[in-house]
Amino acid sequence: MAVDYRNQTTLITGASSGLGALFARRLAARGSNLILVARRTDRLESLAASLPQVRVTTIGMDLAQPGAGAKLAAETAERGLTVTSLINNAGFGTHTLFHEADPQRITDEITLNVTSLTEITREFIGPLRAHGGGVLVNVASIAAYHPGPTLAVYAATKAYVLSFTEALWAEAHGTGLRVMALSPGPTKTEFFEVAGENADGGMPRMSADRVVDLAMRALDRRNPPPSLVTGLPNRIAVGTGRLAGRRFTIRAMGTLMRQSIRR
């Protein structure tokens, strides 16, 4: 049965496009008020205007800046908003050999994917647990399940997100808060405009609509899983990597991804 979100206010980071914007549409359709956060305020305003059935607050903010979590919490408090559900979707990846990566880009990637996600979760976890009827979704990746040569930092940050979120899933037991790490494979979003078109390693890309539909279906369960890998091909890829052993998997991934850089 589809969960009713009419008593919810959901904060979504990275809401200007891709999975974040689709989560906003799905949750608005179920009645949730929204707080949409991203750098591109013009896109946030356009999305908000298309969702007249609920109250939508937009906040333009660069979450890759230090202290973003506390700043976001202060902004919502100043506006008198109580967050009852949270979708941590903001993040990006870099597709290059680590020794050739721009140091500032690495710092920004870790700050956004790990530090800000953690800080934002800590700032809002109290109200989420107190409300007891909402969701906490942290977007990870199938890259979280094994090291990613040429995506070394991205894969490592998503491994953190997966481990962190699964721990919170256990801590939330009995509170009514549904916690889940969402682990898509390559998805048709703007991710590849930033990371590079060959960052998928040649794997097929799933539609963003399908990813969000699978996530919403999982969250409709009475007891959602601690993590969700979306799509059978992606589950096979993760399972095969585990069965093949780490040495073989890392070398095979390294060969595949180095070839993708040269394409």
UniProtKB/TrEMBL annotation:
For this protein, the record's InterPro entries field holds:
NAD(P)-bd_dom_sf (IPR036291), SDR_fam (IPR002347)
- Listed CDD domains: SDR_c
Extract the coiled-coil ranges from the record. Answer: none
User: Any keyword Oxidoreductase?
Assistant: yes
Under the heading Pfam families, the entry gives: adh_short
Give the matching Gene3D superfamilies.
NAD(P)-binding Rossmann-like Domain
Q: Which UniProt keywords apply?
A: Oxidoreductase
PANTHER family per UniProt: DEHYDROGENASE/REDUCTASE SDR FAMILY MEMBER 7B, SHORT-CHAIN DEHYDROGENASE-RELATED
Tell me its family. Belongs to the short-chain dehydrogenases/reductases (SDR) family.
This chain belongs to which protein, by name?
A: Dehydrogenase
Source species? Actinoplanes couchii
